[in-house]
Amino acid sequence: MAYRTRGAISPLTTDRPPLPGRRAEEQQRGCLFALAQLPLIIFLAVIGTLLTVAAVHDLFLL
């Protein structure tokens, strides 16, 4: 049986009511929206590639 509290809303639901003082379109979008941004994806891919190249160099060439 799942644990639920009265009035609790899952952060995964998309039909949450807006916070007091904010309109629905001004809501925070969260981490998954940030990870879907192309510049961040490119940055993380470059950093991941550099770390992989450094690890391969340390393991096999030193």
Number of strands: 0
Oligomer: single chain
Q: Overall pLDDT, averaged? A: 75
How would a textbook summarize the main sheet? none
Query: Poorly predicted ranges (pLDDT <50, ≥5 residues)?
Result: none
Q: Give the number of helices.
A: 2
Bulk shape:
rod-shaped
Instruction: State the share of residues found in helices, binned by percent.
Output: 40-55%
Radius of gyration in whole Å, from Cα?
20 Å
First CA to last CA: what distance? Answer: 54 Å
Query: Order of helices and strands, N to C?
Result: HH
Based on secondary structure, the structural category is mainly alpha
Strand content: under 5%
Can you describe what's shown?
There is one protein chain. By secondary structure, the chain is mainly α. Helices cover 47% and strands 0% of the residues. It contains two helices and no strands. It has helices at 31-35, 38-61. It is rod-shaped, with a radius of gyration of 20 Å. The model has no long low-confidence stretch (mean pLDDT 75). Keywords: Membrane, Transmembrane, Transmembrane helix. The chain crosses the membrane at residues 32-56.
Would you spell out the secondary-structure blueprint of this structure?
Layout lengths: L30 H5 L2 H24 L1
In short:
The chain is mainly α and 62 residues long. It has 2 helices and no strands.
Fill in the keyword field for this structure.
single chain; 62 residues; mainly alpha; 47% helix
